[in-house]
Design goal:
Radius of gyration: 18 Å
Helix content: 40-55%
Strand order of the largest sheet: 1-4-3-2
Structural class: alpha+beta
Number of helices: 8
Largest sheet: 4 strands, mixed
Length: about 270
Amino acid sequence: MTEPTAARQEQVAALGPFFAFETHPAGSELTSPWRTLSEVTREESGVLRKRVTAVRASLAARSGRPAEAVELRVAASVAHLGLVARVLSPVLGLAALHGLRLPSRPPTLDELRWHSGLGGAFALSLPRERVAPIAAGASPCGSGSGSDADTVEKLLDGPIRELVDAAASFSVSPLILWGNVASAVNGAAAGMVAAAPALVRPARTAALLFLSRPQLRDTHTLDTHNGRFRRRSCCLIYRATPDATGALCGDCVLARPRVRRSGPRS
């Protein structure tokens, strides 16, 4: 296997900041400022609590209120949505852009590295050994092969479930958190299509491979003819404003058909 070329990484990055990534040799020594993403799931590290606290303060500041005015579980849900969107977007982008199958084993949180900044897409680095098969693979993503489905299962039941379980410790319902995952998948597909309309079919096919898995099957409704996605839960961001009167995300179960605003990812 060979490392993806810089040109291919640039193609993925052109889809948007949540798709951009760097690479590193698996098992290589950590160098500052890189950290392993697995620290987010270790309660004793305090990393997730610190991030949730920062998101809480940011959400409160938008309406000129103290951090305590925003429920902790609201901030935890928003932080979780940003984390899973960042982890899933590069994989979906690579698969859809190159029309290739997924690698046999997705990266673990121990293998993923990040800079933990707020305010958008944080820097992310993927192990080269996990990315290379996508760049040099053989069969189309979403071809229906058992190996593709197995890879998605491993990703959802591995790093994604670990992030769900970590966020659940802040009293966030698993229904909301798995809804966040489905929303992140759909958001990645929508972002790809907005950046590159020619990717509409591969983007939807790659997303459907995830959305059809048992973990996400009951989290949403999806019209496969027009791509209309609607989650069956709410990420709670509307509750971050006074009297819980904030705008709803376009895919929210509470949103009326005319609502199209999307909440920010942190």
